[in-house]
Design goal:
Shape: elongated
Distance between the termini: 60 Å
Helix content: 10-25%
Strand order of the largest sheet: 1-6-5-4
Number of strands: 8
Strand content: 15-25%
Length: 200
């Protein structure tokens, strides 16, 4: 009997096995699902996987016979990745052996409250003002400034800001509607930069 070429891929819920048996007749293919064993037979070609790395649900597992391969879908009983098809890893669904050793009476160390420590450190830090550091706040401070400017502006100023920013490709921002409404706003890239218009 010849062992057949196969490969698999998996998610946390399912494992899909591809058995490369070109031209397999669906009438001749025999597949058996067991919780920790899988067997495939098609004439002289066989594949037995035992023990499977994890437990499967035979009632939810299925297969399809295609022209080039047979695709088998295993429904995993426990979520998680196996990493391999077969292996002697302990079955997570098997009852755990009861230990005869008595429970330790040693006192346990108290656990650290890391969330409390983090919030304590963050609350003790004082925010740096722009007087102390000119770069304080970074992009957030700049964005906040422009949002406040836009929110407090009249309708003409808002219109000027939108038109100048969109027509200049973000290189110019004007608040003077009388100047902006006359013509299209030119693109003015920063010094040392070159403006390129990309084809759509």
């Amino acid at each position: 009997m010849a062992t057949i070429r196969h490969e698999f891929y998996e998610t946390d819920e399912k494992l899909t096995l591809s058995i490369f048996d070109k031209g397999a007749d669906p009438e001749q293919v025999k597949v058996t699902f067991e919780p920790r064993k899988f067997s495939y037979a098609n004439g002289e070609k066989t594949l037995v996987l035992e023990p499977l790395r994890g437990q499967i649900d035979p009632s939810k597992s299925d297969y399809t016979v295609g022209k080039v391969k047979v695709e088998v879908r295993f429904a995993k009983m426990a979520l998680g990745r196996w990493g391999a098809l077969v292996g002697d890893s302990p079955d997570p669904l098997a009852p755990a052996p009861v230990s005869a050793a008595p429970a330790s009476s040693a006192p346990r160390k108290p656990r650290k409250n890391w969330d409390g420590i983090t919030s304590e450190i963050l609350s003790s830090e004082k925010p740096v003002s722009p007087d102390q550091d000119p770069n304080a706040g970074g992009d957030a401070a700049v964005n906040e400034f422009f949002q406040k400017l836009y929110a407090d502006a009249d309708e003409d100023t808002r219109r000027a800001m939108m038109k100048s920013f969109s027509e200049s490709g973000g290189t110019t921002l004007s608040t003077n509607w009388d100047e902006v409404k006359k013509s299209k706003v030119e693109v003015k890239p920063p010094e040392g930069s070159e403006w390129k218009k990309w084809a759509a």
